[in-house]
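## retry 2 of 3
previous attempt timed out at serialization; input unchanged, resubmitting
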Amino acid sequence: MKNIVKFATLTLMGFAVSMSGFAAQNLERGIVGPVRSSLSWAGYSIVSLVPGGGLMPVLGSTTVFYLGFTAGTVADINNMVLYTTRRGSSKIAAVTPITLGGSSSPTINLASPSVCPVVEISANNPCIVRLDPTPLKLVALDDYYLVVYFTSPDSNNGTVGITQSSFFQTSLRGTDSFSDQSRLAVGASIPNLGYGNPPLLLMYVMND
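## retry succeeded, writing output
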């Protein structure tokens, strides 16, 4: 696990946000307290566990993931994917591409006001990026692993900072791996990286 280099307090979004007149709801308890910032992610996979046991009884047929950035101007993503396993199992039952702007390998312009409305992103004011809705309804009988792999070698990703919850106030969990964990196939096993810590990067999982 990489060292965390900054600390700040964040209060965001609570349990619902208003989007296009519709109250999108958290499918899991998201980040509601302090976050820290960790820098330099070229070549790393961020693996976030969305446990079936933590799902809330809300309606919706799609799933939207929200990522938090705290530093940098451009984030170059090599691949994003969601693995589905049976609850408590490590064997992958399904692989679902995750996209932003229709691409699983997006370049995210963190300096653009249309992407990050805050003037200068930080742990105090993270940039929260909403990924494309995924046509998948999460169910309590399964567990889910979101993997975001940062391009390497890449000078942009050397200055990218991402969020991590400071306390265990969320049902989400996560870890990182200095390798590409985003290209596992159905039937393979989720890497045993340890998922006891609060999540990195992933802030919210909501319906749409």
